[in-house]
Amino acid sequence: MRILFLGINYWPEETGIAVFNAGRCEYLASQGHEVTMVTGLPYYPQWKIAEEYRGRGFVAEERNGVRILRCPLYVPARVDARKRILHEASFVVSATLRALGTHRPELLYVVSPPLALGMAARLLSQVWRVPYLFHVADLQPDAARDLGMLRPGPFLSLLYGLEKAAYTGAGRVATLTGGMQRKILEKGFPPEKVRLLPDWSDPNLFAIPLEIEKRGLCEERGWKDRFLVVHSGNMGVKQGLEVVLEAARETRDHPEILYLLVGDGAARPALEERARAMGLGNLDFLPLLPREEFHRLLAASDLCLVTQKREVGDIVFPSKVMTLLAAGRPLIASVSPGSEVARVAEEAGAGLSVAPEEGSALAGAVLSLWRDPERRRRMGMAGRNYAEARWSRGAALSGMERAIKELVSRKGGG
After folding, report:
1. Is 166 helix (H, G, I), strand (E, B) or coil?
2. Residue 137 is inside which H or E element, if any?
3. What distance, in Å, lies between the first and last C-alpha atoms of the chain?
4. What angle do CA 239, 390, 319 make, to 5 degrees?
5. Is the dihedral of CA 21, 27, 30, 35 positive or negative?
């Protein structure tokens, strides 16, 4: 089968949607399908075009059996709502032109965000008379509204119109969690059209020892006697990472506890400036780490954090939850009580949930688990068992392949 993927993020980006886009494409290629990925120049999460791609426009590559067609896009140095719209629009335009220059596929697999990529999918679907599967990793209009990034008005109504058009034209709409699936069904789409196609845990994470390993990395960095509380991944608006700074301030009388914010993102400069102003000697920032180094850090982490703004709810499910549970690390989720993250943490028995955006609540949970190593050990083991049972890479990818074969067999899908 000839399959054309459209998605803004792909290898060599090492976090978020890119990892799963690459995994899907490479799996399908390994199964004998002819796979082409139309994507952007790598930029995430640093919001800076990777050095080896700077100054380049349309780029063609091949990796692990996948033909990769890269498109130029606008990447702002500092992200706000207006610049993000321009960023996404620039990719949608260049990706549509790039896709039109390829051979007609039998299926389009379109990954949102960006939401407007759904309009490219509808156009290409009509030109080629082929179905498309619209994979929703983030409910963008709901997120923009709930986080106060966009106020109710004509533009937000336009986004909901784009969302409805993208979902309506799709042969299938797929998403990551039961909570996100319910949100889409509540918008009025039939249950048979909305599929659950979850992400998966990196199989290498299950090899990380459950026992904390302080040698090596911690000795190199001088952390051997510290209790490491780690947040890793994107540093953006939705994460609400100010709560970690507040927790660090609340627990500064316990210098053995060290908070690490690892990664990059639009909010990092402001967070670093605020941490300096607060004089937080018990908090440090690390850059995005190569995978092997990140796994070493996970092996040394005593406790990990997942934070979200209180408005986020079921509109996103961060992949770091799967990562931390597979790695056998106990977590504290500073999230809305009704969110999918809170539900999973409770169901798995893998950690504690506390009220979002409340530094004192997060600090209290950190101190509680710092004092109880046996409870942390039980949480880590329970989380790993939960991840092994639910987020198998093989099951997720074979389920995706079945879904697209079913869609193509309907001869038109929509």
Report:
1. helix
2. none
3. 18
4. 20
5. negative
C-alpha span between 401 and 236 (Å, rounded): 32
* CATH-assigned architecture of domain 203-390: 3-Layer(aba) Sandwich (3.40)
Q: Where are the domains of the chain?
A: 2-200+392-409, 203-390
Residue showing tokens 């002819």: 34
Burial of 207-238, coded b for 16+ CB within 10 Å and e otherwise, reads: ebeeebebeebbeebebeebbbbbbbbbbbbb
Cβ burial, residue 190 (10 Å; 0-12/13-18/19+)? exposed
Label residue 6 left, alpha or beta by phi (over 0 means left) and psi (-120 to 50 means alpha).
beta
Express each pLDDT in 316-371 by its tens digit.
Answer: 788 899 999 999 999 999 998 878 899 899 999 999 999 999 999 999 999 999 99
2-200+392-409 CATH: 3.40.50.2000
Would you state the pLDDT for residue 77? Answer: 85
What six digits make up the tokens of 346? 């409770």
Sign of the four-CA dihedral 2, 7, 11, 16: negative
